[in-house]
Amino acid sequence: MPARTGREYLGGLQAQEREVWLRGERVKDVTAHPGLANGARAIASLYDMQHDPALRDEMTYVSPTSGDCVGLSFLIPRTRQELERRRTMMLRWARSTCGMVGRSPDFMNVTFAAWAAAAEYFAQNRPEFGENVRRYYEHIREHDLTLTHSLINLQRSRTVSGMFNLEEGTALRVMRETDAGIVVRGARVLATLGPLADEIAVYSPRLPQLTERHSPFAINFAIPCGTPGLKFLCRESFDLGRSRFDHPLGSRFEEMDSIVFFDDVLVPWERVFLLGDVDLVNRTATTTHSSAHTAHQGAAKNIAKCEFVLGVALLMTETLGNAHLPHSEERLAELMLYTELMKACMRAAEADAQPDAWGVMCPAPLPAEITRNLFMTAYPRMVEILQLLGSSSLMIIPSETDFQSPLAPEIEQYLATDAAAARDRVKLFRLAWEIAGSAFGSRQVIYERFFASDPLARARALNAIYPKGELMERVREFLGPSA
Ligand SMILES: Cc1cc2nc3c(=O)[nH]c(=O)nc-3n(C[C@H](O)[C@H](O)[C@H](O)COP(=O)(O)OP(=O)(O)OC[C@H]3O[C@@H](n4cnc5c(N)ncnc54)[C@H](O)[C@@H]3O)c2cc1C
After folding, report:
1. pLDDT tens-digit profile of 346-362?
2. Which residues of 159-179 are buried (b: 16+ CB within 10 A; e: fewer)?
3. Which of 34, 75, 195, 201 is the most exposed place for a label (fewest CB within 10 A)?
């Protein structure tokens, strides 16, 4: 089956009955629910880009097994050119959502591409697991499936530092093995895109490490979202059912976060990729380099988001007529700095890419990972800059219906600026408010702070890969021999 269209993606969601709950009600059809449907449409539009005659070559490649054109984020890059080609495709997707859809399907596609190439890693102690991961990757590539993932266990208590205060009855664990597969029970967070995905992948984050006593919790598998016993509990939707004018982002890009309950869910053996092997589970992301590949995907999203926020800031200052004032230039320059730093890291990750043990062209881990650490603090600051630039204009945002009310003449007259008609000014600042102050925008800030793990864990990750020796040696040489 070739790369899917948006319609096929939506049809797939409808065809697979799943248990999704939102505001106390079971959602019958996620593609029609007012809180979810526009988010589903946003993902559908990504799939449609694969069939746009002007983009098809950029978005797809020829499958090595079926000969069909399949989504390019499934490509296992063997050369720098292929890595760049994959980035061009991912950046095209990210720009089309203004960088506001963090979990577009390419995130998981690059993960499974890295894992399939490194199938021997999964096969080390159980040869069948290597075959499982290879076959699963082909399955999702040939069917162009959308995956969500959930790595973190819910915790009853945070008395122990880190994420592995794992308790029976809460954390997801293997209950028993049967001839058909493993039975798992527990709760995981946070499956972004969960209700809008075809399948869910469950594995562990690489940063906090499991210990031997955690083996019942050490798992890596993927199953359809409609598997019996699987339940998704959504947060409230930030698509408030308003117009594109009123909520330009929430009305388009609600990707939804969900808690996932596993109520004695049977995972068939062919969908198990690791089981009980703490060491292999802990090292999966670093040894297979899936973490560098997902950082590369995330950097494309970050670039698109930086560019979009900078574009909004430039239009804000142009509209208000203060673009030339020193305080505006200082703030705009800071946004330019983040945008260009992000691009420079992306370029460095590609320029210094090296083939790994499995012949996969791997983005250089250091500049790739730095894009994650940087964005945890840069994005909240970018949002703060929009607030500082916008000031009261972020509150001068009457709704679309106000323009049809008896006050319309006053609005048209008094809200115009030298550079913009009232309607254009309000439209722009409603967008700025959605980024800088709305529920949708606040969730984006929380997302960027935490989606790639908590800040302490990320700092430790950077420490772990930074080449420190040479720098210390240089200082030692400067200090001279010890007395
Ligand atoms: C919007 C959003 C979407 C997400 N989407 C996904 C997804 O799709 N899939 C997925 O698997 N996960 C997802 N996540 C979850 C994400 O992986 C976790 O939020 C992240 O790993 C951090 O874990 P935590 O929230 O439990 O934070 P915690 O571990 O509770 O940390 C909270 C804060 O406490 C600090 N802290 C922790 N320990 C200490 C200590 N010992 N001393 C001092 N300070 C400490 C941390 O630095 C942090 O600032 C998402 C998260 C968010 C917010």
Report:
1. 999 999 999 999 999 99
2. eeeebbebeeebbbbbeeeee
3. 34
